[in-house]
Amino acid sequence: MFAFTAVDYLPGRGDVAVLAFAAASGATAALARWRLWPLFAVTALGSLLFSTWPGFIVASYYAATTLRSDRLVAAYTGAATAALLGVPLLNSVLGTGFALGPDDRMAPGERVFSVLLLVGSPLAAGLWINARRQVLAGLRERGARLEREQAARAEQARAAERARIAREMHDVVAHKVSLMVLHAGALEVEAPDDGTERTAALIRATGREALTDLREVLEVLRSPGGADPLGAPPTLDGLDRLVHQSQAAGLPVRRDVEGTARPLPAAAERAAYHVVREALTNVHKHAGGAATRVTLRYLPAHLEVTVRNDPPPSPAEALPGSGLGLAGLRERLALVGGHLDAAAHPDGGFAVHARIPARP
């Protein structure tokens, strides 16, 4: 813009050329130094050089929508108004033909109207649009704040519900399991024979493990974020203990491994452990004494876990169940990309089959 002005518009322009040269130099230096208002500077300079009065419309609108301070807007309004109204006086005093607006021969009333048209109207439009933007921004911020408050209230409600469940489990379940462990310990001490003593010892050990697991669950429920329990997560190394416990409880269980056993991702091993534990628990509840086979089949990309029991040797009293065990297993496997099938067989047996990804 500076070179364009200096080359083409300086010759033969007199005072106007000198003023244009000074304005071009100042605008160019300002843009090179700050680069804050390039559109405003170029528009003002174009209006100065070419007497393009519509530039005031653009500059006024830009000032209204860009300037963040009321003082700056007022300063611009005063400067623009003074420039438009003071040009005729400047021309008469200096004898120049400088023009920033419409014809200088306008009557004073017409000149005031031109100020309203060139400065007031675009300034008002820009201020209205800027105010509307601020209102919309405020509405968006209010909506975001309401969402955050709603999420906080929901989290507080979840925390309160977890605390209530933890209290109920501690007061009811933990109390009854503790009594069971105490009675089993007393029976172990006063057992009339070795078989009863072994059974009582198994009940006591199982009850103590249940209390440990229950304490970990209560810790999860009471923690703010529902974090994982602090205890070591179960792995496939714990399957032997599950099998031995079931065998000690009178359930004929056999464990088979097909393929080459290898370490798996922790999430996959936890899922497989829970599948076997839930399946054996269901056998104890609904088919006590039935021959059961636990099979781990290692495939290149998956681990298949199958727990199949034969029909119970004799009708047994089924223990009460919630019906949520298999549903919980499906959800747990879905989290690791696995799949669960569970179905009864025509011969009266039941099978649980899980397919778990063996890669992270």
SSE blueprint:
Blueprint: H1 2-8, H2 14-33, H3 38-50, H4 55-66, H5 70-94, H6 108-189, H7 194-222, H8 239-248, E1 253-258, H9 266-286, E2 292-298, E3 302-309, H10 325-335, E4 339-344, E5 350-357
GO molecular function: ATP binding; phosphorelay sensor kinase activity; protein dimerization activity
Protein name: histidine kinase
Transmembrane segments: 39-64, 76-100, 112-131
Provide a descriptive summary of the structure in words.
- By secondary structure, the protein is of the alpha+beta class.
- The protein has two domains: 2-139, no CATH class; 235-357, Heat Shock Protein 90 (2-Layer Sandwich), CATH 3.30.565.10.
- Helices cover 64% and strands 10% of the residues.
- It has helices at residues 2-8, 14-33, 38-50, 55-66, 70-94, 108-189, 194-222, 239-248, 266-286, 325-335, and strands at residues 253-258, 292-298, 302-309, 339-344, 350-357.
- A five-stranded mixed β-sheet has the order 1-2-3-5-4, covered by helices on one side.
- The chain is elongated, with a radius of gyration of 43 Å.
- 17% of the residues are buried.
- The model is unreliable at 1-14 (pLDDT under 50).
